[in-house]
Structure prediction request, 250 residues.
Amino acid sequence: MFNIVTVQKPADQALRQDGLSLLLPADFTASLALDTPAWRPGWDSLTESWNRLPPDAHLKDGGRYRRRRHACFVQELPENTLTQTPHRAHWQPTDYNALHGGFERWFDPVEPAVAEAPAWRELLASLGRLFAQVKPTAHWFIEAHQFRIDTSEGVGRPTPEGAHRDGVDFVVVLMVARRGVKGGETRVFDAHGPYGMRFLMQEPLTALLLDDARVIHETTPIFPLDPQDPQGGQRDTLVLTFRSDNFQSP
Prediction:
């Protein structure tokens, strides 16, 4: 398990066999049938919205290194309809997030122009169809998190809770941009054994797809590439979770 050749397998096959699929940009867009003339320009036009993420007010370690927005959707299958829900809190049990679990976290919503954009909706729907090939379901309850981790305080922590699972069926970590940072190594471990893999996600549209029941994941802290740069560096990602049994709630 956990061989880097995962990147050479079809994503659904890799998820069944290994519990994860690491996709380089061309593999990612091809796997989801997003390699069309319209999708990439549409997606690129949305990445600027990461510059407008508000601070995460719920960090229990006292840091100010994380900015984020949040939105929820329901995908019905096989009709493939995608509906955004009224804005709701993000909640996880402490079993999955010992640091930030057990209470409702309200984040600013994803901007309507982003959540309603064809490129955004095609991305979520395509992932839902792919995951339904691995675990057939009539619907997915999807949470979308726009993250920016910065190094303005000298260090940024993409996963301050450490190695964890999310309590969902599938997790997607999509690289949006990485500028002026070092570190940020992604690590994925077998949830039931000693095996694992580690790698650095650098190119935009590099994607990690995870079977949340089978693996544990984390990303190590990031540091400024140039310590003299007062603005530091940034690591932007889109994290999506797919759950077949409704949203997690208290």
In short: The helical segments are 11-18, 25-31, 39-46, 112-115, 118-134.
